[in-house]
Amino acid sequence: MFQRMFGKPKQETNALTTLDKLNETLEMLEKKENVLLKKAAAEVEKAKQFTRAKNKKAAIQCLKKKRLYEQQIEQLGNFQLRLHDQMILLEGAKATTETVDALRTGAAAMKQMHKATNIDDVDKTMDEINEQTENMKQIQEALSTPIGASADFDEDELEAELEELEGAELEEQLLQPATTAPAAPVHVPAGRQPTRPITQRNTAEEDELAALQAEMAL
Question: Which of 55, 159, 176, 206 has its CA 20 to 30 A from that of 37?
Fold first, then answer.
């Protein structure tokens, strides 16, 4: 149907050749029109010269020639208008043919794609993807489930034991003696020697010796 309406590729080539021929003819008509315009202007100048020379008959003949040239110019103008109309029609037909060819190519490509992939294949592929996803979830859950001896551990007992450890750690921290904060540096004026502070720290051995002496005194 489209070939009957718009023609085959060979006819498209003929259309391009026709457009070239119309352009050449249009250029030829424009050149002839320019020549006739110059001839008509020349006859007007001759008529003016004969009028100055009081040669009325010759001046009228020049004006008649001018009218004939003007008629030819008008006729050439009509020819050019028809050629323009024909060129516009051919260019429109060519654009329509190219558009239809592009649409036909796109439709054929889409049809081929539909043959390669149909809705049943898509549904089957999605079912396979969902099945594999569910299998992977089951595998991950199986790997994360405790096995062996660790599976018998009671989570409540483990949490209670952890609380006991935390309480013992806190009690141990409270029983430890507070550490003495370091003394702040004392500014000593120039020329004076700073007095060395007497250390009043007692070691564990000194504490035991003092307790022994107290028992002996009793």
Answer: 55
User: If you compute the radius of gyration of the chain from its CA atoms, what whole number of angstroms results?
Assistant: 58
Query: Are the C-beta atoms of 29 and 78 separated by less than 8 Å?
Result: no
189: left (phi over 0), alpha (psi -120 to 50) or beta: beta
Q: Is 58 exposed, middle or buried (0-12, 13-18, 19+ CB in 10 A)?
A: middle
Distance CA 70, CA 79 (A): 14
Q: Tell me the percentage of the chain whose pLDDT exceeds 70.
A: 72
Prediction pTM value: 0.44
* 3-state secondary structure string across the chain: CHHHHHCCHHHHHHHHHHHHHHHHHHHHHHHHHHHHHHHHHHHHHHHHHHHHCCCHHHHHHHHHHHHHHHHHHHHHHHHHHHHHHHHHHHHHHHHHHHHHHHHHHHHHHHHHHHHHCCHHHHHHHHHHHHHHHHHHHHHHHHHHCCCHHHHHCCHHHHHHHHHHHHHHHHHHHHHCCCCCCCCCCCCCCCCCCCCCCCCCCCCHHHHHHHHHHHHHHC
Question: How far apart (Å, rounded) are the C-alpha atoms in residues 87 and 59?
Answer: 42
More confident residue, 179 or 142: 142
What is the arithmetic mean of pLDDT over 161-188? 67
Q: Which residues of 140-171 are buried (b: 16+ CB within 10 A; e: fewer)?
A: eeeeeeeeeeeeeeeeeeeeeeeeeeeeeeee
